[in-house]
Hints:
The structure holds two protein chains of two kinds. Chain A has four helices and twelve strands; from the N terminus they run ααααββββββββββββ. In chain A, the strands form two sheets. A six-stranded antiparallel β-barrel of chain A has the order 1-2-5-4-3-12.
Amino acid sequence: MKWFAEHRLFTVVAGIIVALCLVIIISFAAAGGSGALGRGIQSGISWIQRPLSSFTRSVKENVGGIFRYKELQKENKALQAKVDALQEENKNLRIKKSELRELRSLSKSFDFKPFAGTSKAVAARVIEIDESNPYVVFTVDAGTKKHVKRNDIVVNGSGLVGRVQEAGKNYSKIVSILSSRNSISFRLERRSSVTGVLKGSGHGELSGYVMNENMSVLKGDRLITSGIGIYPEGIEIGTIRSIEYDEDTQLKVIKVKPTVNFGALQKVAIYYEY
Amino acid sequence: MSIRHVTIFYAAAFFLQLSVVNLISAGGMAPNLIFCVTIFIAFRFDRGWRCFPFAIAATLLLDLCAGAYLGVSSLALFLVMIFLIWVRYYMNTDLLKTLLATGAVCTVLYWIIYWLIQSILKNYYSLGYILRFQPCFIAYNLIIMAILWFFYSSTFRKWKLRGLPDEEEES
C-alpha cells in the first residue's frame, strides 16, 4: 500500500486502465448490451441528437442538390418521361377496367331467356353516335358479315337498347328505344295484365300510356316487353318515374326511366335469328 | 483553458460527432472530434491532462451510442493520451507544425491500439485495411486540430488585448 501511495501517478494510470478493461470485458460478456441504465442514457442522448440529425440531413440534401444540379436535372427529365409513360399506362388500364365492367354486364345479356333457343347473339361496339340525336341513333361495328339484319333486337346487360334500323357489311345503325319512331309494347313485371305502349319522349326518357286506366300502376314499377310487336317478351325496359292522368284521352300517362344507361353505352349485344 | 470551456468543447464535440460530422464524411471516413479536442488540449496546455476525465466520459458515451462494445475507444484514447503527455515534454508546444506532426502520429497509434483491442474481442479485420485509410483520417483530424488552434489563438489574443487574465493561469 505504501508503494502505491509513493507511486501515485502510476497507480492512477493503472487503475484507469484496469477499470476500462473491466468495462470492455463486461460489455463483451453482455454481447454489446448496455443494460437499463445504458438504454436510458441512450434515449436521453437521442432526444437531443434527433433534431441535429434532421437538420444535418436537410442541409446535406439542399447543399448536395446545388452541387448536383446537372445530374438532378437529367434525373428529373428521365423521371418526368417515366411519369408520363405511367400515366398513359394508367389511363389505358382505367379504360380496360371500364371495358371489363361493360363486358361483364354485356355477358349477362347473352343469357337472355327471351332469346333462348331461337336466336344467337353477337357483341358489337358503339363506334359512332349521331350528334344531333345522341343515343337515339348510333352505329355499331357488327353487320351482315356477322348475320345482323334489319329489325334485329339490340340489348345490353341492363336491358333493351333498341333495334337494327339498317345493316351494312361491317356496321349496323341502331335506333334506340329513346327514339319517338320506336314504339314498344310493355307490361308490368309484377302484373302481366297491366299493359301499355311506350316511345321516346325526346328528353332521354320514355313516355307512354297504360291501356286500362283502372289498372293500378305505381311509381317505381318495373316494365318489361310484353311480346307484342318485334320485341320478344321479358326484356327489361325501365322503371316508372311519374304517373299522370290525361283528361282528354282518359288514359294514365307514364314517364319511364330506361334501365340502360345510354350515356355510358359502349358495347351491345345484337340477337339474330338462326 | 477553464473547466467550463473544456465541458463546452467536449459536449459540442460529442453531439456534433453523432450528427453534423456526417455532412463532411467521405466514404464512411470522418474526423474524430473528441480525439482532436483531446489531442489539442493535452498538447497545447501544460495542465491539459485534466481533460482526460472528459475525454473518457465522452468516448464512453460515444461507444454507448455508436460502438459495438463499451470502453474500446476510451481505452485506446487513454493510452494515446499517456503517450502524448510523455512526448510533449520533448516538443515545442507553441508551434502548429509540432501539433500537426504529433496529431498525425497519435492518429495512427490510436487506430493501431483500436485494431488490437477489437482483434482481442474477436472483431477481426486486417491491419492493412485500417492503415489504408489512415491518410484520410490523418488529414481530417489535422484539419480539425488546425481549426481549433486558430480559433483558440484568435480568442486568446482578444483576451490579452482586453487585458483579461490568462485563462490557463486562472484554471
